[in-house]
Design goal:
Blueprint (H helix, E strand, L loop, with lengths): L20 H34 L9 H23 L3 H6 L1 E5 L7 H16 L6 H5 L6 H6 L1 E5 L3 H4 L14
Antiparallel strand pairs: 1-2
C-alpha cells in the first residue's frame, strides 16, 4: 500500500485582482494618518518660523476656518497628486494596491482629480458610497464609478521575492 500523495495547488498571486474592503480601509487609514502628520508638522514649522522672524507666536487656534480650508486643500493635493503620479498613495503602496482605469491602464490627472473630488460624496451619503466595495464583483465605490477607476493589488510576494511574506515553492527553481 502506498501513501497518498498530496499535490498542492499552484500558488496564485493576488496581482491584478480587485482589492478588498479591509485592504482599502487600512490603506485609507494609513493615508489619513500620514496626511495629518505631514499637515501638523507643516503647521508647527510655520508657527516656529513665524515665531523666529517676528518674535510673536502664531495662534492658529483662533483661525480655525483658515486651518480647515488649508486642511481641505492639503488633503485634495495629497490624494490627487499621488494618484495622478503613480496610481497609489503612501498607504496604498504599503499594502500593495493601486488605482487603475477600468481597462487596466494607468490613471491620469483627470481621473485622479475626479476621484478625489467625489471621494467625500461616498462619506456624505452616510457611507453608502462604499457599499459597492462589499457587494459588487469589481469592488467599485461611488468615487470609483464616477472616475472610471478600480483598485487592484499591484504586487505579489513571489514576484517581489519577499521570502518573509511568501514561502518559496520547493518545486520552482530560483
Amino acid at each position: 500500500m502506498t501513501a497518498p500523495t498530496i499535490t498542492s495547488a499552484p500558488v496564485v498571486g493576488r496581482q491584478g485582482n480587485y482589492a478588498g474592503a479591509v485592504t482599502r480601509l487600512v490603506a485609507f487609514a494609513a493615508d489619513i494618518g500620514v496626511a495629518w502628520g505631514i499637515f501638523t508638522v507643516t503647521l508647527a514649522s510655520i508657527d516656529f518660523a513665524f515665531q523666529l522672524v517676528t518674535g510673536k507666536q502664531l495662534n492658529l487656534g483662533s483661525r480655525q476656518l483658515l486651518t480647515l480650508v488649508g486642511l481641505i486643500i492639503w488633503e485634495f493635493v495629497y490624494f490627487a497628486y499621488q494618484w495622478s503620479l503613480g496610481g497609489k498613495t503612501i498607504g496604498m503602496a504599503l499594502l500593495g494596491i493601486r488605482v487603475v482605469r477600468t481597462d487596466g491602464e494607468a490613471i491620469g490627472p483627470r481621473q485622479a482629480v475626479i476621484r478625489t473630488l467625489t471621494l467625500p460624496l461616498s462619506f456624505l451619503i452616510l457611507g453608502l458610497g462604499f457599499i459597492g466595495i462589499l457587494l459588487n464583483r469589481d469592488r467599485h465605490a461611488l468615487h470609483d464609478r464616477c472616475a472610471g477607476t478600480v483598485v487592484v493589488y499591484s504586487w505579489d510576494a513571489r514576484a517581489a521575492r519577499l521570502r518573509w511574506l511568501a514561502k518559496q515553492d520547493p518545486t520552482t527553481p530560483s
